[in-house]
Every structure is written in structure tokens, then in C-alpha cells.
Specification:
Layout: E1 8-11, H1 17-28, E2 32-37, H2 40-50, E3 54-58, H3 64-78, E4 83-86, H4 101-122, E5 131-135, H5 148-168, E6 174-180, H6 187-190, H7 195-208, H8 217-228, E7 239-242
Parallel strand pairs: 1-2, 1-4, 2-3, 4-5, 5-6, 6-7
Helix pairs in contact: 1-8, 3-4, 4-5
Bound molecules: NADP nicotinamide-adenine-dinucleotide phosphate.
């Protein structure tokens, strides 16, 4: 018997990275999982990779029309939603004085506004017992050069988990933030960092991490599973850090 038998889950941004790793684990635990992303070919490959139990809906979380379409699909096909992992996000770095109006709107529009409206559109499909997980970052509580906009969006999501806890706790819906440390995905490559910069960051992060390694998508998937199931039924409004101890020392 799986830990998520009979559950319906949406994972945004699950064509790659930690979203994909989480979709695989959720399906293995018995959930029906709807994954999203902007690239149809990547979504098709992910559905093949995950296998039976997964379906893909193409959409950009910064588009309210796409989010309406996602909601309409979930409602028509499943009638309810038990788990939402609001995971989609971008991490474009840039020094403070070089951040343009467009850069600012791009990152805020996806990471904060897009995640805010993902939750707003889907939350009324959730019965009591529902679990929402917001993918934040340890950068939301740190100061890192070149990450002013990104880090602020993640701090905003951490705040959102608290506000929604006050509003939806009485309805039996839990909202937690999951804050990854350095996780081995393609996000940095996709956002323009060179191979040399990525190698250097991995070396530095590994050296600074008490548990002596950087994280994997599966580390995040296992934590998302904990937050999605009744094993965490009395936990809401928190930010759970998954970073091998990196931000604690
Ligand atoms: N990797 C890390 O070290 C790290 C650390 C802390 C937090 N995080 C957070 O973890 C989350 C997942 O990142 P990842 O590392 O797994 O990176 P990733 O491999 O780049 O995955 C990002 C996923 O989000 C999708 N996505 C991006 N923008 C989207 C949009 N506007 N609408 C819908 N889907 C979108 C991407 O697909 P498309 O591009 O095809 O849309 C992809 O499926 C992000 O929120 C990120 O900020 C990552």
C-alpha cells in the first residue's frame, strides 16, 4: 500500500529537477499526479519517464489564463485536489545595479506572483486534509550577492505560507514551505551560469555543508512526501530546510 493511494496531486514545474523527482516518488506512492511546465516536449519526456499515474498540462504559472486552464482540467477530470507542490521557479542571478525592470518583473512574475496565483486558483478544489507545499529556498533567509530579486521572492513565499496558514488552518488545509539548499539540478545552467561557475559553486557548497555533499532531487522529493502525508498532519505554517545543515552553520 502506498502512502498516497487515491490522492490527486499537482506539481508545477515538474518536467525536470526536483519537481520531476517528486512526481516520480508521488506516483510510486500511489498518487495520480498532474505535472506542469512551459515546454511540451520536456513534459512529454517526463510523463514517459514517470510512467502510469502521471499526466501533463502545459502552462506558464505567470499566466492567469494558463492557471485557469489548469484549474478547469483538475476540476473536470478529478473533481478535487489533495496535494499541491508549488515548485515551478526560476533563478536568474544579477548584481543589484544591473537588475533591469524586465529582469525584476520576470523573476517576481514567476516566483512570487505566479506561485501566489497558482495557489489562489487551486485552493478551493482542496477538501479538509489538503496539503500545500511552497518551494522556497535557504536564500530567502540569507544575503547573497547577485540574488537580491530571487531571494526576496522566496522570502515572500515564506511569508505567504504564514498568511495562508492563518486563513486556511480553520478549514483543515495545511500550507508549509520547503526550503532547499544547493540541489543538483539544471536550474543554474538554464539561467545562464557557465559550467565553470557551477563547478565552483558545487565545490564551495560541498565544503560548507556539514553533511558533506550537495542535495539531490530525491532529498527534496522525500521531504515533500512527508509534508504531503498525514505523517506531518499537525505541522503547518513552517519552513522546513533541506540543505544538509548548510544554512545553520
Ligand atoms: N536547485 C537548487 O539549488 C534550488 C535551491 C533552492 C530552491 N530551488 C527552487 O526549486 C524549484 C525547482 O527548481 P529546480 O532546481 O528543480 O530547477 P529546474 O530543473 O530548472 O526546474 C524548474 C521547473 O520549473 C518549470 N518552470 C520554470 N518556469 C516556469 C513557469 N513560468 N511556469 C511553469 N513552469 C515553469 C521548468 O520547466 P519549463 O522551463 O519548461 O517551464 C522546470 O520544470 C524552483 O522554485 C527553485 O527556485 C532550487
Amino acid at each position: 500500500m502506498g502512502k498516497l493511494d487515491g490522492k490527486i496531486a499537482v506539481i508545477t514545474g515538474a518536467s525536470t529537477g526536483m519537481g520531476l523527482a517528486t512526481a516520480k516518488l508521488f506516483v510510486r506512492e500511489g498518487a495520480e499526479v498532474i505535472i506542469t511546465g512551459r515546454d511540451q516536449a520536456a513534459l512529454d519526456a517526463a510523463v514517459l519517464d514517470i510512467g502510469k499515474g502521471a499526466e501533463a498540462i502545459r502552462g506558464d504559472i505567470s499566466s492567469l489564463a494558463d492557471l485557469d486552464a489548469l484549474r478547469a482540467h483538475v476540476e473536470a477530470r478529478h473533481g478535487r485536489l489533495d496535494i499541491l507542490f508549488a515548485n515551478a521557479g526560476v533563478g536568474k542571478p544579477g548584481l543589484f545595479e544591473e537588475v533591469s525592470d524586465e529582469d525584476f518583473d520576470f523573476t517576481v512574475g514567476i516566483n512570487f506572483k505566479g506561485t501566489f496565483f497558482t495557489v489562489q486558483k487551486l485552493i478551493s478544489l482542496m477538501p479538509a486534509g489538503g496539503s500545500i507545499i511552497l518551494n522556497t529556498s535557504i536564500q530567502g533567509v540569507r544575503g547573497t550577492a547577485g540574488l537580491s530579486v530571487y531571494s526576496a521572492t522566496k522570502a515572500a513565499l515564506r511569508s505567504l505560507a504564514r498568511s495562508l496558514t492563518a486563513e486556511y488552518g480553520p478549514k483543515g488545509i495545511r500550507i508549509n514551505a520547503l526550503a532547499p539548499g544547493f540541489i543538483d539540478t539544471d536550474i543554474m545552467r538554464r539561467n545562464g551560469l557557465s559550467e565553470e561557475m557551477i563547478r565552483e559553486m558545487k565545490t564551495q557548497s560541498t565544503a560548507h555543508t556539514p553533511l558533506g555533499r550537495i542535495g539531490t532531487g530525491h532529498d527534496i522529493a522525500k521531504t515533500a512526501l512527508f509534508l504531503a502525508t498525514d505523517e506531518s498532519e499537525f505541522i503547518t505554517g513552517v519552513e522546513l530546510t533541506v540543505d544538509g545543515g548548510w544554512a545553520q552553520v
